Amino acid sequence: MVTESDSALAVSNPATADIIGYAPVSSDAEIKADIERSHTAQKHWAALPAKTRSGLLQRWFELLLENQEDLSRLMTLEQGKPLHEAQGEVLYGASFIEWFAEEAKRTYGETIPAHSGDKRFVTIKQPIGVACAITPWNFPIAMITRKAAPALAAGCSFIVKPSELTPLSAFAVVELAYQAGIPRDVIKVVLGNTAPQVGDIFTSHPLIRKLSFTGSTRVGSLLMQQSAHDIKRTSMELGGNAPFIVFEDADIDAAVKGALASKFRNAGQTCVCANRFYIHSNVYDTFVTKLDAEVQKLKVGNGLENDVNIGPVISESAKTGIQSKIDRAIEQGAIPVTPIQTLPGLFMQPVVLRNVSHDMDIVQQEIFGPVASIMRFDSDEELIHMANDTIYGLAAYFYSQNIHRVWKIAEALEYGMVGINEGIISTEVAPFGGIKQSGIGREGAKQGIDEYLDVKYLCFGGN
């Protein structure tokens, strides 16, 4: 990505380095004006019947499905993931719009038994106001719809700053919202000359009442600090260091299949992907052999080509960082199961490392690339200690056919989401989010809309 002028960003294809389009850049004054218009529009949007908002969201959902192929191709061009994965993301992103279109009609309040006969207690839920979001490049459509849909369903207006690496998908999906009939001042996309510039405006502007962020723990912590001065509501989906655990009683073939899906989807560039593998010593060699055999079948290339499983990583700095983690692990004693090849451009060969130990840098840091670091363990107690020995707590995965162990490990793991005999856990109907330094708040499910609602208690006296 390069800057063409002060008012446009050139967007490039990570697979070819070709410029594929330009995205408009707003000045500080323009972004602040957008916030003010969004504040005014929100009052009218919230006053609409919930059924009306629901219908407009449903139409937006339908337009995403009708334009799936164009959106998928655009996403592959600017983000790099294989086309079949992009197609899946469009459906995944659309699912949140459909879900929250339905939830718009279900923001129920409560009646509460009063402590005296002359009073009546009631709660109602009301939209927060103007909500904003900062979203990442790895899921450029789903990370927007997962936030925008509940905000709009609740009656909030919504402003999103997408990644400068993948802004075209954002503009495209929001254009479809306009075509669905959602007012232009109710949902907006903004880009600034720098990401911190927009973050500063979002966190300091008094009309912004909610900030949702998906990204690194470091940046999330900074945004929370900046939002504290006027007590903005925040939700944070931050870094992860997901363990993938295989017990000796596991179905090894199923575990290998789950590992491939969890680790190598989007070239390993997901916050919930398996980051470190703990395999029981009794099945360690079998698992490594079978996983490596499947990894060697993965095809690396341009996501628009047939049968490609792994596209490019997002940038040169990302590739350099991943390679440095691999090199450091080898220095510390890890052994590549197959010889490592250097690929041109932003492509990276998927790597399986064995003889990895828990204290290695590659285990303690989020890799965000196609690297599987595999360790041994011998007891449940040892495993639980190592799996929880991290500041992060987003996702974890384990495979076991022992029902007693399943409950024990599921309850012991300090993570917001746990996949049990399953490598893909994300869905619009379940709450997505982490604990510890992986964030606060939940997206999706019935909990997702509550992030954009205030609960108001009404006390009726004199009855």
Automatic annotation (TrEMBL):
InterPro entries: Ald_DH/histidinol_DH, Ald_DH_C, Ald_DH_CS_CYS, Ald_DH_CS_GLU, Ald_DH_N, Aldehyde_DH_dom, Aldehyde_DH_Superfamily, Succ_semiAld_DH. Residues 5-457 form the Aldehyde dehydrogenase domain. Keywords: Oxidoreductase. The keyword Oxidoreductase applies. Signal peptide: none annotated. It holds the Pfam family Aldedh. The active site is at E237. The keyword Cell wall biogenesis/degradation does not apply. One of its GO terms (molecular function) is oxidoreductase activity. Its EC number is 1.2.1.-. PROSITE patterns: ALDEHYDE_DEHYDR_CYS, ALDEHYDE_DEHYDR_GLU. NCBIfam families: SSADH. Belongs to the aldehyde dehydrogenase family. This is NAD-dependent succinate-semialdehyde dehydrogenase. It comes from Vibrio gallaecicus. The lineage of its organism: Bacteria, Pseudomonadati, Pseudomonadota, Gammaproteobacteria, Vibrionales.
